[in-house]
Amino acid sequence: MEPLSDTDCAGSTHTFEEVKSKRSQKRKRAAADAEMQPEETAAAKRPQFPALSGDQLAGGEVEMRRVPVPAHRYSPLKENWMKIFTPIVEHLQLQVRFNLKTRNVEIKTCRETSDIGALTRAADFVKAFVLGFQVEDALALIRLDELFLETFDITDVKPLKGDHLSRAIGRIAGKGGKTKFTIENVTKTRIVLADTKVHILGSFQNIKMARTAICNLILGSPPSKVYGNIRAVASRAAERF
Questions:
Q1: How many CA atoms lie within 13 Å of 202's alpha carbon, on the beta-carbon side?
Q2: DSSP track, 39-83
Q3: How deeply is 204 buried, as exposed, middle or buried, from its count of CB atoms within 10 A (0-12, 13-18, 19+)?
Q4: Where is this region: Disordered (predicted)?
Q5: Residue 115, SS3?
Q6: Most buried of the four, 26, 128, 189, 203, by CB within 10 Å?
Q7: Is the pLDDT of residue 104 over 90?
Q8: Tens digit of pLDDT for each residue in 163-199?
Q9: Residue 153 and residue 197: Cα distance in Å, rounded?
Q10: Which residues contact 183 (CB under 8 A, 6 or more apart)?
């Protein structure tokens, strides 16, 4: 564009030059930076590394877990040994044995172990069986990721003794195990009553519902009221998800 000119009274000519705005200069710089950017990103591209196996992640070291077995679980362990042995060895690629001297189930990794979390899952599976859960229920700990085990004592909720403690255990179990089965079915968990210990297997949210129901029973709530509460909570949870 040609510069404009103006003539004053004395006859001298002044030229008016176009001043470039700062905005246009910024835009041009931004456009130039955008053109340069692909070249920079290509130069600074992240390196691609191959995936590491479980053996390499562990640094080549053999890891071991020991699960102690109480005396009253020796016979069930012997009867169900193949059901426990098969998923640990074939699916998780681990080695397992029962040490007769120490009375422990020993699980360890080997070169074929590909999953770094397999050892923990196998130990949880054996621990669940030792606590009194059926093999089929405990097997869910290997197949599913979002399952947990929780254990608490009845006396932690309320310090009961003698007949009062026996009645609290009876309220949790119910006549013929009816109350326990109802809580299991509504909350989708598995519950084991072992003396004063309560073991719950399930997802985090479901364990919370079952624990609340059991604590209410220990504190003296009638079963009918507890049934209504857990059904209401379970229906709200179903609607939410």
A1: 20
A2: HHHHHTPPPP-PPPPHHHHTTTPPPEEEEE--GGGHHHHHHTHHH
A3: exposed
A4: 1-57
A5: coil
A6: 128
A7: yes
A8: 999 998 998 888 888 889 989 988 899 999 988 899 9
A9: 5
A10: 189, 191, 210, 213, 214, 226, 230
